[in-house]
Amino acid sequence: MGFENAIEFERWWGRNGNIFESEALAIEEVMPDSTDDAIVIGNGTGKFALRLGIPFGVDPSESMCKLAKKRALMPSRELPKTFHIPTDSFHWRLW
């Protein structure tokens, strides 16, 4: 499921809200109490980050990062081959 178009991505999750909610609940089971220093790798439009309270994310898609920024998240557009997380920057990562 490769979504370059952020609107298409959002529509897919809109049609499959039960899957979204199921995945979010499963992730919450293993999340730390604080997400201040957490990051989502493959952030997409920030839908999961927003739901889970994670302020940071990276994604290679420019259109997805733009929508994530509209959600008041702090996404970074990074290409997978060049992305590097300094080990002391984020103590919890969601892939």
Keywords:
16% strand; Rossmann fold; globular; 41% helix; alpha/beta; 4 strands; 4 helices; 95 residues
If you had to describe this structure to a student in words, what would you say it looks like?
This protein is of the alpha/beta class and 95 residues long. The chain has one domain: Vaccinia Virus protein VP39 (Rossmann fold, 3-Layer(aba) Sandwich), CATH 3.40.50. 41% of the residues lie in helices and 16% in strands. Strands 3-2-1-4 form a four-stranded parallel β-sheet, covered by helices on one side. The model has no long low-confidence stretch (mean pLDDT 85).
Quick structural gist:
This protein is α/β, with parallel strands linked by helices and 95 residues long. The protein has helices at residues 6-15, 17-30, 47-52, 62-70, and strands at residues 38-41, 56-59, 74-77, 92-94.
